[in-house]
Amino acid sequence: MDIESFQTDLIDWFEMEMRDLPWRKDQDPYKVWVSEIMLQQTRVDTVIPYFTRFLEKFPSIEVLAKADEDQVLKAWEGLGYYSRVRNLQSAVKEVHEKYAGQVPDDPNEIASLKGVGPYTAGAILSIAYGKPEPAVDGNVMRVLSRILLIWDDIAKPSTRKIFETAVRGLISHEKPSYFNQALMELGALICTPTSPSCLLCPVRDHCQAFEAGVQNELPVKTKKKKQRLVEMVVAVVKDKQNRILIRKRPESGLLANLWEFPSAEIVLGYRSEKEQFVDHFHETYQVNLSLGDMVGRIEHVFSHLIWNIHVFKGELHGDIQEGPGLKLVKAEELEEYAFPVSHQKIIKQYLGV
DNA sequence: GAGTCGTGGAA
DNA sequence: TTTCCAAGACT
């Protein structure tokens, strides 16, 4: 492989064809950082409006460092993988305090920031600082597995290192930012997972998989096992003043620190789901409530599990102690809180709007 | 190394 | 309808 002509063909194509994306307007390390966190496991089209709004609300490291976490989560509502933004704010606080607000350009320092793994570190170092560091994501592994005919299973974490080594040998030292972005852009636009557009590919002449006619066999990727089913009861509980009870989820684990309607995981074919929920509610809040009939059912699919949500309406009997993680709010005030999409569905279907 | 952690779109 | 994701990181 002629590395120089590969770099030239790839980068020339990128300079002609790169998409006009909001995070490509400049190379501000903070903006690059935010975009890379948002883009983790998330489509470009999904990220665009979130990125624009997020930077309007939190235009600088200082603003984000000082922002209220509930407001930050609200800006992330619907994007998923919510620990990303809590880690981002945590790391931004560290940069604000420890590095005087300047995103470090040292590989070890930047990789030590919360939420910044090998890919994101390389992306920031190359895109914002022009350093020839590999930024190996799913696109890069797919593209290079074809070009270099690499048959290792890209689902295995250890495989990423093989591609990092490959990139170190291929990356342009003149334009490392464009080189890394070009590999990803190629994966997104041309060298797609199924039916790659090889006839339009700018580096077709360098591609060993195309030469051998095996581009559809690569990359090798073992499939993940399917989700486990979880039965849930969620209750929209109102007090005598028609206020709705919401609570903040635990600070770790699934949907951490988001708000929700009181919920409980239940076991089918045991006591009635209504009975299980009322008992759980009393143990949790020391308050009685009555549940009506089930008003609906919602299935919500996560990466690793499926919630089968049984939706009930309930009435509070007695006073409940509000606190930082437990509130009674009017229906119009619900929009001020960040809810998971599963509970947004409940709001839409059973509370109107 | 394998499981956890979201969502909406495409094949 | 089902499957597989899409610019991963953390435990």
Give your account of this protein's structure.
A hairpin with a 3-residue loop joins strand 5 and strand 6 (305-317). This protein has 14 helices and seven strands. It folds into two domains: 3-134 and 158-191, Endonuclease III, domain 1; 228-350, Alpha-Beta Complex (Nucleoside Triphosphate Pyrophosphohydrolase), CATH 3.90.79. The chain has helices spanning 3-17, 29-39, 44-57, 61-66, 69-76, 83-98, 107-111, 118-129, 138-147, 159-170, 176-189, 208-212, 273-285, 341-350, and strands at residues 228-238, 244-248, 259-260, 263-265, 288-301, 305-317, 326-329. It is an alpha+beta fold and 353 residues long. It binds a DNA duplex (11 and 11 nucleotides) through residues 35-47, 78-84, 87, 114-120, 123, 135, 137-140, 156-158, 181, 184-185, 187-188, 193-195, 223-224, 226, 253-256, 300-305, 340-342.
How much of the polypeptide forms β-strand, as a percent range? 5-15%
- Counting structural domains, the number is 2
Provide a count of the helices: 14
The chain-level mean pLDDT equals 96
> Any idea what the CATH architecture of the largest domain is?
Orthogonal Bundle
CATH topology of the largest domain: Endonuclease III, domain 1
Largest sheet: 4 strands, mixed
Alpha-carbon distance between the two ends: 59 Å
CATH superfamily caption of the largest domain: Hypothetical protein, domain 2
User: Numbering strands along the chain, what is their spatial order in the largest sheet?
Assistant: 4-1-6-5
Order of helices and strands: HHHHHHHHHHHHEEEEHEEEH
Strand segment tally: 7
- Give me the secondary-structure category: alpha+beta
Low-confidence runs of at least 5 consecutive residues: none
**CATH domain class name of the largest domain:** Mainly Alpha
Q: Using only CA atoms, what is the Rg?
A: 24 Å
